[in-house]
Amino acid sequence: MIKNQKVALITGITGQDGSYLAEFLLNKGYIVHGIKRRSSSLNTERIDHIYQDPHLSNPSLILHYGDLTDSTNLIRIIKYVKPDEIYNLGAQSHVSVSFETPEYTANCDALGTLRILEAIRLLKLEKITKFYQASTSELYGLVQETPQTEKTPFYPRSPYGVAKLYSYWITVNYRESYGIFACNGILFNHESPRRGETFVTRKITRGLSRIDQGLENCIYLGNLDALRDWGHAVDYVEMQWKMLQQKDPKDYVISTGRQESVRRFIHLAALALGWKTNAENNAIVWEGSGLDEVGRRVDTNEIIIRIDPKYFRPSEVETLLGDSSKAYEELNWKPKISLEELIKEMINADIELAKKEAFLFRKGFNIPKSIENPPSIFEK
User: Fold this and answer.
1) What phi and psi values does residue 234 have, to the nearest 5 degrees?
2) Closest CA to 328 of 228, 252, 259, 260
3) What's the domain range around 306?
4) pTM for the complete prediction?
């Protein structure tokens, strides 16, 4: 270990943001400790390329088994690591799933944050360890103003959003009560090729890539007209780090300031695949309405998108659009990667995976079909 080398602890290191943040901090010269949940199967594919054998002397990436629902485990790890910075990225992060598992979501996403903050306090690390809390634009839910800023009132519309609301305010409370350097990053939607397959953006890029290679005929989606502010995870993890480098702890909205619909995201993904377009530059045309609406591919005339009511939430968040003026002005941060570049990167990664699967299929191997969520208890 190099003298004065910073030490960071990341919860959720095997997730999309955790893996990019680990890369970022390693490149900054940090020693990075990560907490991962125990699983009977390997779940480290996002960080396999930076994995270091623990038998080596002085590794700069160290993994620990742990869980945000286990306070004694968290206290033990934090006591052992004595981190300069903690990035709490771990969570049950799927909004729709939170309706199915509300108690677990609250235990992990809300009380998990409390457990870490309380560990910092109990271990007398208030003046040593800085804390970053991964907050979310889902706090705004039924939006009270557009665009949303740090001062916009919260109105969460899911168990996930409500759990994150607790995390937000308990972070503020421990900052004000105990002097902990604690920040909330209110991150709007951010994607990448490492996004989980059941999130809508990855479901689109993966599904259309598989259709392109003949592995799939159709994908099923929910609310095509939901409006979101999408950025790239690589840009956003830089901002997470920047928050903990400032003189005083503050909370920041992190967004692009650009809003598009799910329908528009599909259009851009089809263009990134190079599919033939009509005179209006559309590779997919829409027919019907409501649950009967379908998306038809222009060059083959095949229906490749259908609506499934199980992908609608019991209470929808129709529109989210962030205003990151505070971050722009105080931390000199602006996103570098455009939505078109993000989608192209996701398509490139997913088409490569689809080509490999198509090759194996032609050679007689069984290829698993696209993963779908189980039936919802809210289905009528």
Assistant:
1) -60, -45
2) 252
3) 200-227+261-316+337-362
4) 0.94
On whether both 153 and 46 belong to a single domain, the answer is yes
pLDDT block averages, 10 residues each, the chain of length 380: 86 97 98 92 89 88 96 98 98 93 97 98 98 98 98 97 98 98 98 96 97 96 97 97 97 98 98 97 97 97 96 94 97 96 98 96 82 47
Q: Catalytic residue positions?
A: 136, 138, 160
Going by their DSSP bridges, the two strands 227-228 and 61-65 should be labelled as: unpaired
Nearest-5° Cα angle at 241, 66 to 91: 35
Q: Which of 197, 196, 333 is nearest to 253 (CA)?
A: 333
Torsion, Cα of 20, 85, 324, 190 (10° steps): 20
HSE-CB for 362 with a 13 A CA cutoff: 8
- The confidence score (pLDDT) of residue 371 equals 55
Task: Identify whether the C-beta of residue 113 lies closer than 8 Å to the C-beta of residue 182.
Answer: no
**Residues β-bridged to residue 88:** 11, 133
Distance, in Å, from the CA atom of 28 to the CA atom of 242, rounded to the nearest integer, reads: 12
pLDDT at position 176 is: 98
Q: Count the residues in the chain.
A: 380
Q: Across the strands, what pairs with 8?
A: 32, 85
CATH number of the domain within which 289 lies: 3.90.25.10
- pLDDT in the model for residue 39: 82
Model pLDDT, residue 297: 97
The whole-number pLDDT of residue 47 equals 95
Query: Do the beta carbons of residue 132 and residue 88 sit within 8 Å?
Result: yes
The amino acid at residue 30 is Y
Backbone angles phi, psi at 121, to 5 degrees: -70, -50
Indicate which CATH number applies to the domain containing 106.
Answer: 3.40.50.720
CB 357 within 8 A of CB 367: yes
Closest CA to 168 of 104, 74, 252: 252
Number of separate domains in the chain: 2
Residue 281, pLDDT score:
95
Indicate the DSSP class of residue 288: S
Structure tokens at 64: 């620990």
Q: Give dist(CA 113, CA 164) in Å, integer.
A: 9
